[in-house]
């Protein structure tokens, strides 16, 4: 079947089965490999992308359910205010180790800050518990989200 | 003292016989492929710089290249699986080169053991045993210093000034009114002889080492640009997934592939020793095709059919019989007999999957010269040898493009090179018609074996009336992952696999009457080292039992340990430093507990203090404080990150990680049943590094071993209850 997807502001026509997960359309058909495969059952968050700004797990999102929603991936999240601040905070806090889960972590963090600009530790843990990092970068992710939140708040204040 | 030193691991690896021939051409191609930049040494006639490769002299050609734009690229002979060697190794070069950090770059070196062997492993290129910085330390200091000296010589000639009038600072050469960048002199420098003797800096003059430098891989790992093996795309590439047997040791008997072949995108179905392979034009089609395989029958005549509960029962019985002696001094049995108090402890440790976030995968393609492999390669030389054997070519015809690895924790350093071998066998089975991308799903990973082995320990120890250890008797039972590998002869001495007893039989505590023995039962579950190897279980047993003895003796656990470490100044220093940083003192108060552990692994000493609280009958890990002696701290922030990560990894094993089998069938499949540590469970972590003037030692693994015992000791402190076996059954704790 043919589907028209709006990914990172670009229209892509793809010819795949409707139940194909968005993850594999992004990675294997469109060629955007920044979104990662980690578990295939929405347990690890490595495949997190945004649909109209909301974080979803692309590995369990059938392409036929995407419709006209704007798909944003790690490759384009830096164009949003939250995304840019999260990425900057990730660099400032030296978050990454192997880096494989970080696309998903950043997408989850950006979506969190979009709806909750000043998350508490508990808010951060609740949302980010869906993203697994086997390297154990969690303390730095927490610190980076707080930094990005502070900067967002500071930006609004000015 | 260590049962297995990195050097011994190296000798084991060297025994693999994967000798490679000098590959200058391969090296040059590898360099050219990276950027086509000017390389110091490349313009030398053969026999000069390259001859140095065969000696212990500096080899700036193999590791350092300086482009006309003054960027300095360090060729990284190790895999970066997150531990930060692509920052650490360039730091060492930049320091001696007096480069500015902003001009430093990193690129993975080609597979070529003649140039890029791990000096701790002998003639083998590979990463492991927390050796990357340690074995590169002298080598890269010399490489950086030699490159600096060559630049200075070239500048001196051009400017007509004495070389010793030239200073180098932050990538700028200066003499009087002359100033110049590295790029200006790179070409002239490349035509000079590589100096035989170089002067290394006095560590007190270090400017970069010991400071917080931005990781070189951070940017590409935060915007999706970093390329892992899973992201490699080759023209005409087919994705392969394998249906493996449910029981280890089973083989394919028969199956029906007709439905699988009808799945759109599926191209072919073949069998290889590992199982049934579905090849497709994309990953989803391959997975769907595998699900559609029908009527599969396995030959289970040689399969493992025992469950983990049965295995553990067998291990307990074995522990009561004499094993192979791993350590013996004094008379432990007599000491315990005459003791004023005795304690007995037993511990079970489950099989553990490594579960790196990037599912295992490998791309392989036939070329005019042989094959090219793209993977997060941790044992390049072994992967070359194994692939060559399967393909019927020479090891040097196997080119490896090492790419970022999405974690490893030991899994990618596998003596049989399992998933690389699978990819090669699929390429062979399909006559090399198309590039093959073998992809493991998470279920393949969790069920696929090469686990940290199941272990059982039993300890009997006694205390004299004045609170000294009267005797220590420890029985260890667990599979050897060295048996049956080419490393067997090197790892196993007098029937004792050093990787099974390290951290116990060589404990640094002064215990005069001491005995450790080992049983290594044969089980058909493939096993492998897992971040910190034998220390994953030995440290727990020793540190919990020592804590129990301290309490039985009515002594403070720190004081008790210090007395046993009187002749171990390094360990004592870490323990005192930790006690000071953690403000070690009397019990924290009701509902609170704190535990301590100290352990040496990979030539580093790490002490851990864990604070817990009991909240509504649940244990909560509040804080972990670590003190580390790892020699000179090249990149302190990377070290802190490794220890933080080690704490997370150790906590996961303490609280959740467990592979169980029922009649030989693994009961976990994915992250819904093999439970990883999540952010909500991650405590605050404080890491303190002891100042040191000694050469760097390991940091990737040593953060792990102390976590579980410190937690067990903290839970005891808070509740008076001992949780010993891993993972802790917190539900067994009675609030």
| Domains of chain B (count) | 3
CATH class of the largest domain in chain B: Alpha Beta
Q: Structural class of the helix and strand makeup of chain B?
A: alpha+beta
How many structural domains can be distinguished in the coordinates of chain A? 2
The overall pLDDT average of chain B reads 91
Helical content of chain A, roughly? 25-40%
The main sheet of chain A comes to: 5 strands, mixed
Low-confidence residue ranges of chain B:
8-59
Q: What is the CATH topology classification name of the largest domain in chain A?
A: DNA polymerase, domain 1
Q: Numbering strands along the chain, what is their spatial order in the largest sheet of chain A?
A: 2-1-5-3-4
Rough outline of chain B: globular
Terminal CA distance of chain B: 41 Å
> Which architecture of the largest domain in chain A would the CATH scheme give at its second level?
Orthogonal Bundle
Reading the helices and strands of chain A in chain order gives: EEHEEEHHHH
Protein name (chain A): (2Fe-2S)-binding domain protein
InterPro entries (chain A): 2Fe-2S-bd, 2Fe-2S-bd_dom_sf, 2Fe-2S_ferredoxin-like_sf, 2Fe-2S_ferredoxin-type, 2Fe2S_fd_BS, Beta-grasp_dom_sf, Diverse_Oxidoreductases
GO molecular function (chain A): 2 iron, 2 sulfur cluster binding; metal ion binding; oxidoreductase activity
Pfam family, one (chain A): Fer2
Give your account of this protein's structure:
The longest helix of chain A has 20 residues, at 138-157. In chain A, helix 2 (81-92) crosses helix 3 (102-115) and helix 2 (81-92) packs across helix 5 (138-157). The mean pLDDT of chain A is 95. Chain A is globular and about 45 Å long. In chain A, a hairpin with a 2-residue loop joins strand 3 and strand 4 (54-57). A five-stranded mixed beta sheet of chain A has the order 2-1-5-3-4, sandwiched between helices. Helix content of chain A is 40%, strand content 15%. Chain A contains five helices and five strands; from the N terminus they run E-E-H-E-E-E-H-H-H-H. Chain B is globular. A seven-stranded mixed beta sheet of chain B has the order 9-10-7-17-14-15-16. Chain B has three domains: 6-213, Aldehyde oxidase/xanthine dehydrogenase, molybdopterin binding domain (Aldehyde Oxidoreductase, domain 4); 229-301 and 360-439, Aldehyde oxidase/xanthine dehydrogenase, molybdopterin binding domain (Aldehyde Oxidoreductase, domain 4, 2-Layer Sandwich); 308-352 and 451-520 and 527-732, Aldehyde Oxidoreductase, domain 4, CATH 3.30.365.10. Chain B starts with 5 loop residues before the first helix and ends in a 16-residue tail after the last helix. Chain B is built from 22 helices and 28 strands. The chains are: A alpha+beta (158), B alpha+beta (735).
């Amino acid at each position: 079947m043919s589907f028209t997807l709006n990914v990172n502001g670009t229209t892509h026509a793809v010819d795949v089965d409707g139940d194909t997960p968005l993850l594999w359309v992004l990675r294997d058909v469109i060629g955007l490999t920044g979104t990662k495969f980690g578990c295939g059952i929405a347990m690890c968050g490595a495949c997190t992308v945004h649909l109209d700004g909301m974080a979803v797990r692309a590995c369990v999102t059938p392409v036929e359910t995407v419709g006209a929603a704007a798909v944003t991936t790690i490759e384009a999240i830096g164009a949003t205010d939250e995304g840019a601040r999260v990425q900057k905070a990730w660099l400032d806090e030296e978050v990454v180790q192997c880096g494989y889960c970080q696309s998903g972590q950043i997408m989850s963090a950006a979506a969190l800050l979009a709806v909750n600009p000043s998350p508490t530790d508990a808010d951060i843990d609740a949302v980010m518990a869906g993203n697994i990092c086997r390297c154990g970068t969690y303390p730095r992710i927490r610190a980076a989200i707080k930094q990005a939140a502070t900067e967002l708040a500071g930006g609004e204040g000015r | 003292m260590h049962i297995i030193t990195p050097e011994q691991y190296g000798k084991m690896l060297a025994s693999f016989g994967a000798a490679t021939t000098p590959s200058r051409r391969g090296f040059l191609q590898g360099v050219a492929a990276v950027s086509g930049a000017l390389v110091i040494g490349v313009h030398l006639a053969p026999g000069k710089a390259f001859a140095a490769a065969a000696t212990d002299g500096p080899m700036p050609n193999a590791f350092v290249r300086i482009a006309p734009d003054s960027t300095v690229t360090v060729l990284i002979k190790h895999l970066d699986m997150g531990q930060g060697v692509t920052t650490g190794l360039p730091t060492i070069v930049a320091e001696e080169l007096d480069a500015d950090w902003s001009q430093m770059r990193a690129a993975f070196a080609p597979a070529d053991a003649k140039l890029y062997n791990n000096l701790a492993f002998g003639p083998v290129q590979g990463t492991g045993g927390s050796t990357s910085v340690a074995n590169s330390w002298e080598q890269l200091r010399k490489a950086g210093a030699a490159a600096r000296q060559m630049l200075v010589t070239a500048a001196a000639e051009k400017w007509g000034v004495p070389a010793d009038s030239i200073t180098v600072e932050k990538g700028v050469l200066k003499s009087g009114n002359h100033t110049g960048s590295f790029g200006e002199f790179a070409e002239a420098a490349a035509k000079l002889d590589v100096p035989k003797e170089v002067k290394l800096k006095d560590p007190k003059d270090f400017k970069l080492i010991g400071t917080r430098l931005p990781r070189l891989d951070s940017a590409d790992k935060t915007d999706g640009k970093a390329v892992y093996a899973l992201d490699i795309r080759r023209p005409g590439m087919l994705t392969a997934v394998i249906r493996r047997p449910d029981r280890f040791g089973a083989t394919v008997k028969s199956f029906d592939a007709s439905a699988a072949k009808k799945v759109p995108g599926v191209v072919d179905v073949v069998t290889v020793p590992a199982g049934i392979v579905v090849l497709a034009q994309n990953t989803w089609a391959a997975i769907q095709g595998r699900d559609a395989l029908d009527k599969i029958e396995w030959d289970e005549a040689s399969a493992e059919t025992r469950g983990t509960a049965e295995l553990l029962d067998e291990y307990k019985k074995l522990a009561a019989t004499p094993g192979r002696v791993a350590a013996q001094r004094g008379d432990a049995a007599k000491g315990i007999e005459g003791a004023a108090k005795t304690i007995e402890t037993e511990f079970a440790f489950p099989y553990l999957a490594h579960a790196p976030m990037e599912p295992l995968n490998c791309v392989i393609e036939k070329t005019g010269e042989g094959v090219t492999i793209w993977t997060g390669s941790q044992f390049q030389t072994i992967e070359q040898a194994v692939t060559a054997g399967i393909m019927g070519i020479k090891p040097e015809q196997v080119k490896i493009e090492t790419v970022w690895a999405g974690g490893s924790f030991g899994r990618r350093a596998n003596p049989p090179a399992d998933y690389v071998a699978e990819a090669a066998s699929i390429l062979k089975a399909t006559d090399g018609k198309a590039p093959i991308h073998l992809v493991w799903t998470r279920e393949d990973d969790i069920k696929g074996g090469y686990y940290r082995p199941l272990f059982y320990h039993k300890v009997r120890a006694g205390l004299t009336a004045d609170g000294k250890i009267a005797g220590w008797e420890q029985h260890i039972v667990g599979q050897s992952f060295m048996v049956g590998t080419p490393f067997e002869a090197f790892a196993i001495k007098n029937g004792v696999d050093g990787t099974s007893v390290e951290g116990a039989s060589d404990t640094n505590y002064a215990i005069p009457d001491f005995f450790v023995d080992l049983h290594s039962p044969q089980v058909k579950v493939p096993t492998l080292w897992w971040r910190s190897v034998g220390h994953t279980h030995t440290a727990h047993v020793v540190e919990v039992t020592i804590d129990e003895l301290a309490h039985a003796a009515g002594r403070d656990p720190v004081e008790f340990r210090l007395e046993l470490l009187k002749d171990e100044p390094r360990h004592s220093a870490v323990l005192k430093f930790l006690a000071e940083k953690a403000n070690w003192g009397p019990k924290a108060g009701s509902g609170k507990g704190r535990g301590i552990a100290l352990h040496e692994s990979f030539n580093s000493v790490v002490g851990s203090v864990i604070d817990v609280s009991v909240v509504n009958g649940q244990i909560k890990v509040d804080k972990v404080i670590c003190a580390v002696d790892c020699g000179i701290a090249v990149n302190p922030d990377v070290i802190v990150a490794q220890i933080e990560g080690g704490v997370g990894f150790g906590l996961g094993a303490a609280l959740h990680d467990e592979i169980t089998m029922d009649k030989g069938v693994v009961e976990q499949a994915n992250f819904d049943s093999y439970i990883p540590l999540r952010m909500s469970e991650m405590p605050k972590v404080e890491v303190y590094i002891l100042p040191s003037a000694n050469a760097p030692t390991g940091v990737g693994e040593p953060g792990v071993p102390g976590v579980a015992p410190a937690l067990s000791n903290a839970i005891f402190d808070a509740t008076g209850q001992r949780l010993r076996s891993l993972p802790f059954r917190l539900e067994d704790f009675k609030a």
